[in-house]
Amino acid sequence: MTGNDEFAFEPTIVAFCCHHCAYAAADLAGSLRLNYPESLRIIGLPCTGKVDVVHILKALEDGADGVMVAG
Amino acid sequence: MIIAEQKPLDEIMGLLGSDERVLVVGCGTCVTVCFAGGAREAAIVAASVRMTSKLNSVPREVTDVTVQRQCEWEYLDEIKEQISDADIILSLGCGIGVQAIAERFPDKWVVPGLNTTFLGMPTEQGVWIERCAACGDCVLGITGGICPIARCSKSLLNGPCGGSEDGHCEINPDIDCAWQLIYDRLSRLGRLDALLELQPPKNWSTSRDGGPRKITRDDLRLAAEEE
Amino acid sequence: MEGDCHYLLGNINARRRVEFVRNLLLEIGLEASRVQMFNLSSAMGGQFAEYAAKLTEEIRQLGPNPLRKDPLYTTETSTGE
Is residue B127 a part of any domain in this protein? Predict the structure, then answer.
């Protein structure tokens, strides 16, 4: 994002992350002091196999700009 | 069980027209098990309708509820308040469920969200195959438990026909030739002689050829209360 | 990673569901690319940050979700470049 317009669009992304891989990877990114966008709202799951169509739709219906499923 | 599949969202939106308050009614029996119209699917359809309506600036209030069985009055009566609060009912039941709602609530407009497809079973998760044609005069006792009415493209009673190729049907090679299956099974069980027995012509009047069907059992009917 | 899931096939099933939702979004009238799946192993911290940045950028290009109830931002200001 360029400029410092306080009203500029910053997306909200719901990230469904598998506890065993992507969630750990996100943790690692933190430990490595890597920057990643603050747009992500991470939700840990025991497995991405738990992700249901209903969960993804609910995130979008309630206003999330994007959904990431990682695992 | 009864197998159904969801209509395309476009068609559902068309059926809903401009009615504002929509009640999506799922059914907890067959269509739940075939993932077409249970509580989960009702939630997905309701969310999809809400989202589509909002994107198109169509005022809409969509709720969903699922009953144990749409084809019995008792279960429909449990949701009569919700039904009376709605302008239109989107039924995710089979064709029987839709008609049960229409009959129980004569002043309410009801539309189907599913296409009722056939009587069948899942052969693996996510795959369903037709198994019964409800012909009303079961022949499975002669054919070794494999139905030639539902599973032969021509419903032949004396197959296989010349279109049976390496055990597959000429109409659709994905479909096994029912008569090949019957022959193989009877042969393996040493019961091929069952096919030699002469059968009278099948009575199709018990099937749809005889018009809408009805069963009445006096042993089950309740005596009418006297005034 | 795909084929290396802790529960063997969990992430393959997830990908199928994500595909279903992406098709449903097109029917609803939203961009399919608002929903994306990524495969990662627990050692891929760098890739996680990379994917997060990539997805955020793509969604910034798409603009806000039109279903969002109370937009606190203007839609014209950011083009991302």
Answer: no
Residue A5 lies in a domain: no
Number of domains in chain B: 2
Contact C29, C66 (CB under 8 A): no
Q: How far is B105 from chain C (nearest CA, A)?
A: 30
What distance, in Å, lies between the first and last C-alpha atoms of chain C?
31
The reply to whether residue B9 touches residue C66, judged by beta carbons under 8 angstroms, is: no
What is the domain count for chain A? 1
- Considering only alpha carbons, which residue of chain C is nearest residue A3? C78
CB pair distance less than 8 Å for A54 and B47: yes
Question: Is residue B163 domain-shared with residue B112, that is, in the same domain?
Answer: no
Q: What is the phi-psi region of residue B218: left when phi exceeds 0, alpha when psi lies from -120 to 50, beta otherwise?
A: alpha
Say yes or no: B100 and B26 in one domain: yes
Q: Could you list the residue range(s) of the whole structural domain that residue A29 is in?
A: 13-70
Q: What is the pLDDT of residues C49-71, one digit of tens each?
A: 999 999 999 999 999 999 986 55
- Tell me whether B50 touches chain A (CB under 8 Å): yes
- pLDDT value of position B154: 95
Which chains have at least 3 CB atom pairs separated by less than 8 Å from chain A? Answer: B, C
| Domain enclosing residue C26, as ranges | 1-43
Would the CB atoms of A70 and C24 count as touching at under 8 Å?
no
Q: Which domain holds residue B13?
A: 2-117
State both tokens at B3: 């197998």
Chain B residues whose beta carbon lies within 8 Å of the beta carbon of residue A57: 44, 47-48, 51
| Cβ atoms of B36 and B92 closer than 8 Å | yes
pLDDT at position B101 is 98
Q: Would C67 be classed as within a structural domain?
A: no
Residue A61 in any domain: the answer is yes
Cβ contact A56:A67 at 8 Å: yes
On whether residue B219 sits in a domain, the answer given is no
Cβ neighbours around C78 below 10 Å, total = 21
The structure's pTM equals 0.89
Task: Please tell me which residue of chain A has the smallest CA distance to B54.
Answer: A61
The number of folded domains in chain C is 1
